[in-house]
Each structure stands twice: as structure tokens, then as C-alpha cells.
From TrEMBL:
Highest taxon, organism lineage: Bacteria
UniProt xrefs under Pfam families: DUF5675 (PF18925)
Descriptive protein name: DUF5675 domain-containing protein
Organism encoding this protein: Kaistella chaponensis
Domain DUF5675: 4-130
Amino acid sequence: MKAKIIRVAEGKQSTLSQLYIDGIFQCYLLEDKIRAIKIPKQTAIPAGNYTLRLNIWGGMNAEYRQKFPKLHKGMIEINGLPNFSFVYIHIGNNFRQTAGCPLCGFGFDFIDGDYQIVRSKDAYQMIYPKLLSIAQGAENHISIENNFQF
């Protein structure tokens, strides 16, 4: 399976993306604003090609084991990013909750100049097994590209 994040819109402090697996739309993602100079926990991931891996040692694992006891095997980490570490695809609704990570959701709103996503927990439960399969496979790549449409 192949994963791709395509960025489609920018807000004042937010970036809206779409997640595709094997060319099929899965859900929306929300990140912080794209910045030329990184601000820790406030900057979108640079466009490029990276790997997905299963992180079983990071701090969010205990929280996610409690939230998703039957689902969670480890955090899905986007690895190999320049100047970024511990970047997980996780739940949340607005750019203040991203901490530099993509949040997943089944829909979005545009409020006061920024994007927010909705039904994050539902989206996470749907995409997690697919992303886990990619992270544990030999072809564990993910690409991120900018293709702003609105």
C-alpha cells in the first residue's frame, strides 16, 4: 500500500490536507501553517518523501492504549523529517492541538480564517489499521505534496 498526503488549502494558522492510500481518499488531515522557518510545534511538515514507522516508546502511547485498547499497537510516526521528531498522525480538531503533527478527521469547517476538522476519533479508528499495515510493511513510504485548490 502507498500513502500520500495532498495539501489542498491554507488558513491563517492551519493547513488542510487529504490522505490517500493506494489512490483512494481516506480522510482529511489538519496541520499547522506552512512556514519557511520552523517554529517548534507550530509548523507543518515540509513537502517530501518520508517513511511511516510504528513508535512504541513515545509518550503518547500510554494515552492511546487507554483510548483505543483493542486498536492501539503503537503510534504511527512519520519518520525522517528534517528538524522534526515524534510526528504522529493522531486525533484532534484544530491547529492548536497539532503540536506539529497531522490530525485526522472525516470533515472540516472553516471558522475565523482557519480550518478545523471534525469526527477525528472516527477517522483515526478507520485509518489506523491501514497505516499500521503500511508502517509494518516493506514499502512503508508516505509522500507529502502541496496542491492548493482553495
